[in-house]
Amino acid sequence: xxxxxxxxxxxIGLLALLAVIGLIAGFFALNNYIYTKKQTGNKxxxxxxxxxxxxxxxxxxxxxxxPQSKECALGIKLDSGEYYAVDFSLMSQILPELATGERFxxxxxxxxxxxxxxxxxxxxxxxxxxxxxDSVTREYQACTQEALECPDGSYVGRTGPRCEFAPCPGxxxxxxxxxxxxxxxxxxxxxxxxxxxxxxxxxxxADVVCIWAGRVVARVTxxxxxxxxxxxxxxxxxxxxxxxYQISIKSIKPSKVASTPEPKPTDYLITFQVKENE
Length: 278
Known about the structure:
Low-confidence stretches: none
CATH topology of the largest domain: Tick-borne Encephalitis virus Glycoprotein, domain 1
Shape: elongated
Number of strands: 16
Distance between the termini: 94 Å
């Protein structure tokens, strides 16, 4: 074997080895690419500029099974239902005063949650952080033409940026208490309560001695700015937890008396108490 044949053979072997190494590297690179795509669901995980519009909100927690704190991590809820944490630290202009519940739009930089180096946002169902840079604009909307009956029989409508019902007139007495008739709706301390029907009235009559006081069970719809639920409330229960409120029945009219006819379904007036969670 001459020298030229030897070196040609060595060169071919080296090229073959490099080709094998290249194939192996390409195989692992392809696997890594496919794995990354599966993990991110083909989402863009790099920061990008965007204009977002939606409602300025306190971000909800992922886990709502335990006690909830009163902390409010501010964010934006898009019309599509997606949440983003909001950061105004990059703003060069004066930030308009925004209240939770208001709608606004702005330009900024979106950093997807997959690209964040901290776990502090994992407890919220956010898609990422929206770092606002400019063009913050408050969006005003027309309120629906609804009327709410107050305890004194007067009516108020929706008003303000959050389209909340205006306070009932008077302002005298305990604002946590309100009396609701069957088929009526009353706004009490942040919660709109509709009394649909009396499901049960097993109260002991006032002129009879009983071994059990009995109870009244009412079917109601509870509605706040952020939640709505139809359920029953019992007069002998401590409190019902709804959104950030504690709701209970404080009194029932008319009283039950054995010597008088049973109250008609439309005769009932129930006084509810609505307190904010402490």
